[in-house]
Design goal:
This protein is α/β, with parallel strands linked by helices and 443 residues long. It has 16 helices and eight strands.
Length: 443
């Protein structure tokens, strides 16, 4: 009998934790959010393609199945159609979906260049940090703020051996090499400088400064798709020697190229700190069947995060180490210049599991946790609008569940729960990027 009673208490406690406090959930739904991480598409003319929404998009890769939250049968996508486009059905019948796509097109036509901002209004997002190669039409500040990519700057030498590592990396390195050429063209630099010091000054720092002048509020690394995250400070002499030897041609050894990458990464991180640009780093799960998950472990970044010369740089460990590393993130938040968000987890995990991760982080450092969607382009029927609606809805509910559990367990009061909700949904981002870089906070 005692065992049955104990089991009933456990089940009852677990069940109540899945139901958010209604008043708290209503308050969270009313917060005009700042989305820390996204890949919104730009508006393009008929027949054109927006190829700038990600430096390393997943769609050219060998297809892999999404988790259950991201599959078309998720009921939240039908709920998104109803909420945003007046969909009248409870199914995804092909005729009904064709009508939906037509309704979406009518809305795009009616809103014109204001359509992306209209989408944010439907999602309750005031400002979205857009990870893009270039910002694009319709994604104007202050509703969208630019976060460009810097990985291409790490790989100025012959990348054939790195590209041969997996079929995915063959695709990705071709894109990174093209992006480096694009950055150099933007600077009117016709060829790689002869020395590492000149490369750092004329290409790397010049690119960062140009991005800052043209609206960047942070910089982004997707390095885990290209190599392991075990960056070190690097050795200047060895890096200088490797660059000078191979900039004119030839294949560097793995050791030679790694020390150069490490040194350039450290230089970018230091320069980003000087320019007031937080450094975003992809951690955890990544797309593609060849993605090396162990290489995306955020703990590999610890030597970098402990580097005293980089304490002026703020690091945001994106996706909260999605996958097996979520709990490791909490301890890394102890470092004064380290933050995280739960983007990607919003579509990777069901709401219940997402709430568990959020609660764990909040019980460590609530001032270090940021809301994010990781929305990106999809199919005509389930595109960035629906993905944004699903991820935003799940995020708000998961946050409410996490805070409800903390209230029920006596860890926080109701006023503190509401305060933390505002911090996570927008206040922490305002503190990290500054009011002028997002939007003036509305309380």
């Amino acid at each position: 009998m005692k065992k049955l009673l104990a089991l009933a208490l456990i089940i009852g406690s677990h069940a109540s934790a899945q139901q958010p406090d209604p008043a708290l959930l209503a308050a969270i739904r009313g917060i005009r959010a700042i989305d820390n991480h996204s890949h919104p598409p730009a508006l393009v003319a008929a027949g054109q393609k927006d190829d700038d929404f990600d430096a390393l998009p997943c769609d050219p890769l060998e297809p892999t199945k999404p988790t259950i939250s991201g599959r078309p049968e998720n009921p939240r996508f039908i709920a998104a159609w109803k909420a945003m486009f007046g969909y009248k059905y409870n199914d995804a019948d092909s005729a009904h979906v064709r009508a939906l796509i037509a309704a979406k097109q009518r809305m795009k036509t009616a809103k014109g260049d204001n359509y992306p901002a209209w989408v944010l209004d439907q999602l309750g997002i005031e400002t979205e940090l857009a990870n893009r190669v270039a910002i694009g039409r319709g994604l104007a500040a202050p509703r969208f703020r630019w976060v460009p990519f810097e990985d291409a700057l790490l790989f100025p030498l012959d990348n054939r051996e790195l590209a041969a590592y997996t079929p995915d990396r063959k695709i990705f390195f071709a894109r990174e090499e093209a992006l480096l050429r694009r950055y150099m063209k933007d600077l009117n630099v016709g060829q790689l400088p002869a020395t590492l010091d000149a490369y750092l000054a004329q290409v790397v720092t010049a690119t960062l400064e140009r991005q800052r002048r043209t609206g960047a509020v942070a910089v982004k690394f997707e390095a885990a798709y290209l190599r392991r995250l075990n960056f070190t400070r690097g050795d200047r002499a060895a890096a200088t020697q490797a660059y000078a030897r191979y900039v004119v041609g030839g294949l560097p050894s793995a050791a030679e190229y790694t020390v150069l990458q490490d040194f350039v990464f450290h230089h970018i991180a230091a320069e980003a700190g000087r320019l007031g640009l937080p450094v975003h780093i992809h951690t955890g799960y990544g797309c593609g069947g060849y993605f090396e998950l162990a290489g995306a472990n955020p703990l590999l970044l610890e030597p970098l995060l402990d580097d005293a010369t980089l304490r002026g740089t703020k690091f945001v460990l994106l996706h909260g180490g999605a996958g097996p590393f979520s709990q490791s993130i909490a301890a890394l938040l102890m470092k004064p210049n380290v933050f995280t968000d739960f983007s990607e987890q919003t579509w990777l995990l069901p709401t219940r599991e997402l709430s568990t991760n959020i609660r764990y982080w909040l019980e460590w450092y609530p001032e270090k946790v940021l809301f994010g969607t990781d929305l990106s382009p999809g199919s005509p029927q389930i595109d960035w609008e629906e993905i944004g609606w699903q991820t935003t809805t799940s995020a708000r509910e998961a946050l409410a569940i996490a805070l409800t559990g903390m209230m029920n367990d006596g860890e926080i009061t109701r006023p503190r729960a509401i305060e933390i909700a505002r911090m996570v949904m927008r206040g922490n981002a305002v503190g990290l990027y500054g009011e002028g870089e997002t939007n003036k906070a509305r309380n």
